[in-house]
Amino acid sequence: MTLRHLRIFLAVCQEGAATAAAEKLYIAQPTVSVAIRELERHYKVTLFDRIGRRLFLTEAGEQMRSYAQHIVSLLEEMETRAQDWEETGTLRVGSSITIGTVELPGIVKRLQEQYPKLRIEVRICNSDTIEGAILGNEIDLGLIEGRRHSGKLTAVELGGDELVFLCPPGHPFAGKTVAPEAVGAEPFLFRERGSAGRDLVESTLRSRGIEVRPLWQSISTQALISGVAEGLGLAVLPLSLVRPAIDAGEIARFWIEDLRCTRQFRLLYHQNKYLTRPMQTMIRLCKEAW
C-alpha cells in the first residue's frame, strides 16, 4: 500500500466513480480499478458497494477514508512547509571578537531582514574555538581572523585589517617610530592563546628577533585598552576596535621600524556542509561587507 493508493481511493470517494476519478487524476480508468482492488486485497475488506454505475462506501470504506484523509493531509502540509524549512530554522554563526564587534551586527541585521522567520544564533570567541565548533557541527558558519588550520574546512577570503602598536599617551614611544630591539624589554598585554591576532603578533615580533612574555592575557579588548591607558604595558590590537580610544587620547599609537601587522579575514564552513539559502546569502553579505 502506497500514498498513491490513498490518493486514488480518496478521488474515487469524492467522484463516486472510477472513470471520473481517473479523469480527475489524469490516469487511465483501469489503473484506478486496480488500485482499489489492491487496497481491498491488502486489508481484506470491501471498500465500496458497486450499485449500478455508482460506487458507495461501505462501513470499512468510511473508516479507511477517515485515515486516508488524515494521512494525505499531513503529507501535503509537510510538502508545503518543507519549502520554508530553510528559512524558518536556525542558523548558527561563530565569530571572532573583532568581526563580531565591527561588521557582524550589520550583516546579521541585513540577513534577518531577508529571512524574518530565521533564528540566527551567534557565538563570539577566538578563532581556534570557532574552527573546533565547525568541525564538531556546533556552528554552521565561522568568521575568523587569520589562517584556517584544518583541511576539512572550506575558506572564503574576505577583507582584512591592521593591528597597531599601542602605549600610554605619556610613554616615550607615543607617536614615534622605534627600533625593534627597543620594545624587547617592555611589558606587553596580549589577547588569550588561540586568538588569531595574538598568533600573528607573536610570529611577526619573533621574525624581528623580539621575544615577549605577556604581563596580561585577556579575552577582552577593552580590558587591554584600559591596561594600556593605566600605564601597565604595551599592546597590539585591531585599529578598528581601538580608534575611539586613540581619538579620545586615552592611548597612543607607535610604530616599529619596517614592521606591520595586517591580517586576512575568512569565512569558514565544513567541506561537507550543505549550504542552505540563508547560508549562501550570509556568505554573499560578508563578501559585500569587505
Rounded mean pLDDT score: 90
Instruction: Name the shape in a single word.
Output: rod-shaped
Which regions are unreliable across 5 or more consecutive residues at pLDDT < 50? Answer: none
Annotation field: number of helices: 12
**In angstroms, what separates the terminal alpha carbons?**
56 Å
The description of the largest β-sheet is: 10 strands, mixed
- The structural class is alpha/beta
Helix content: 40-55%
The H/E string reads HHHEEHHEHHEHEEEEHEHEHEEH
The count of strands amounts to 12
Share in β-strands: 15-25%
Q: What gyration radius follows from the Cα positions, in whole Å?
A: 33 Å
How would you characterize this protein structure?
By secondary structure, the protein is α/β, with parallel strands linked by helices. It contains twelve helices and twelve strands. Helix 1 packs across helix 2 and helix 2 packs across helix 3. The longest helix is centred in the first third of the chain and has 24 residues. The radius of gyration is 33 Å and the shape is rod-shaped.
What key attributes describe this structure?
single chain, 290 residues, alpha/beta, 10-stranded mixed β-sheet, two-stranded antiparallel sheet, rod-shaped
Brief synopsis:
The protein is α/β, with parallel strands linked by helices.
